[in-house]
Design goal:
Blueprint (H helix, E strand, L loop, with lengths): L5 E6 H13 L14 H17 L3 E5 L7 H5 L15 H13 L4 E2 L6 H11 L5 E6 L12 E6 L6 E4 L1 H8 L3 H11 L14 H11 L2 H6 L6 H9 L1 H11 L14 E2 L7 H7 L3 H11 L7
Parallel strand pairs: 1-2, 1-4, 2-3, 4-5
Antiparallel strand pairs: 2-7, 5-6
Helix pairs in contact: 1-2, 2-4, 2-13, 7-8, 7-11
Length: about 300
C-alpha cells in the first residue's frame, strides 16, 4: 500500500530568528574562518532536520519573507514598523540560510510583496486534500490555517519540542474554529506585527466575544448586548477593526508556481556534507554524524 503523501512546510524566517537569538544571548555567533556568523543557519537546519525525524514527510519546502515590505504595508504604513533592524551578525545569514537549504536539496519559496506565512498558506490550501500538510513554525498566527489535512507544529524551547495542533485540538482548546481565530486577532491586535486592533480589547475579551457571537459581523450586529465599555471601544475603532482583520488574515492566493518546487524527501543527501564543510558548520556537522549517520563529515 502506498504511503500517504505528507508535505512538511518550514517557516524559514521564524526558525532563523529563533535560532539566532537562542545563541546570540551568550555571544555564540559561531563565526567561521571567513568571518561569517553561522549560528542562526546551523540552528535553523537542526530544527528542520529534527522535525523531519519527527514528521517523516514525503516532501518538504522552506518558505521565506522576501524583503521587509509587503502588501500589508500598503494597507497600513505602520505594519511591523515597531521591529528593530536585525543585528549586524544576522545580516549575512539570510542569504547563507537559503544557500545551505539548497545544499540539502530543499527548495526555497518566497515572493516579494508577501510574507512566508502567505506562501505557506497558499501551498497548504492548494495541495490535494488527500495530502497531509505539516507546518513547522514559531508563529501562532499560522494556526488559522489548520484544517482536516493541515496540522501546525509550534516550536517550544530546545530542539524537538512542539505544541502539536490539529483542527479539532485547536477547537477543544480555544472554543473557536481556526478561521474564527482571524477575528480574534482583529479585535485584540498584534503588538509584534504593529497593528492595534480595538484599543482596550485584550485576548480574553476578544476570544469571549467571538465564542459568543461567531464573527466580527456577529459582534457588530449585537453591540446592544455588549457592556457599555466594550460597545464604546468597538464603535470608536471600527475602521481599525476592519483593517486589522485584513492584516491578520493570511493571504492564500499568492501567485507562486510551487508544483515543481516541493522536493521529495527520503533522507539527508550525502552531498550536503560539501556545503557543511564549505561554511564550517561544525555544530550542524556533529548533529548529522550523531543523528543521520553521515560519517564523512570532517569538520
Amino acid at each position: 500500500m502506498d504511503r500517504q503523501q505528507n508535505l512538511l512546510l518550514i517557516d524559514g524566517m521564524a526558525l532563523l530568528f529563533r535560532s539566532f537569538y537562542a545563541t546570540a544571548v551568550t555571544g555564540q555567533y559561531m563565526i567561521n574562518s571567513n568571518g561569517t556568523p553561522t549560528n542562526a543557519v546551523q540552528g535553523l537546519m537542526k530544527h528542520l532536520l529534527t522535525a523531519v525525524n519527527a514528521v517523516k514527510p514525503t516532501h518538504a519546502a522552506v518558505c521565506w519573507d522576501m524583503g521587509s515590505k509587503t502588501f500589508r504595508n500598503e494597507l497600513f504604513v505602520d505594519y511591523k514598523s515597531n521591529r528593530e533592524a536585525p543585528p549586524v551578525e544576522m545580516l549575512p545569514q539570510f542569504d547563507l540560510a537559503k544557500e545551505v537549504v539548497s545544499g540539502f536539496q530543499l527548495p526555497n519559496i518566497g515572493l516579494a510583496g508577501y510574507e512566508a506565512d502567505d506562501c505557506i498558506g497558499t501551498i497548504a490550501k492548494s495541495v490535494d486534500p488527500a495530502t497531509k500538510v505539516t507546518i513547522l513554525t514559531g508563529d501562532k498566527d499560522l494556526l488559522q490555517l489548520l484544517d482536516d489535512h493541515i496540522e501546525v507544529l509550534i516550536l517550544q524551547k530546545g530542539f524537538g519540542n512542539y505544541q502539536w495542533y490539529t483542527k479539532d485540538g485547536f477547537f477543544d482548546e480555544k472554543g473557536i474554529t481556526p478561521r474564527q481565530f482571524i477575528d480574534v486577532k482583529a479585535l485584540m491586535g498584534d503588538s509584534s506585527d504593529g497593528y492595534p486592533g480595538v484599543k482596550g480589547i485584550g485576548e480574553k475579551t476578544a476570544l469571549k466575544l467571538i465564542q459568543e457571537h461567531s464573527s466580527i459581523e456577529g459582534v457588530l450586529e449585537n453591540l446592544d448586548k455588549l457592556t457599555p465599555g466594550q460597545r464604546k471601544k468597538i464603535e470608536s475603532d471600527l475602521e481599525m477593526l476592519h483593517l486589522s482583520r485584513r492584516l491578520a488574515e493570511i493571504h492564500c492566493e499568492v501567485p507562486i508556481d510551487f508544483e515543481h518546487g516541493l522536493a521529495e524527501w527520503s533522507k539527508v543527501p550525502q552531498n550536503c556534507i560539501e556545503i557543511v564543510n564549505q561554511f564550517e558548520l561544525r555544530s550542524l556537522g556533529r548533529y548529522l554524524v550523531q543523528n543521520h549517520g553521515l560519517e564523512a563529515y570532517i569538520g
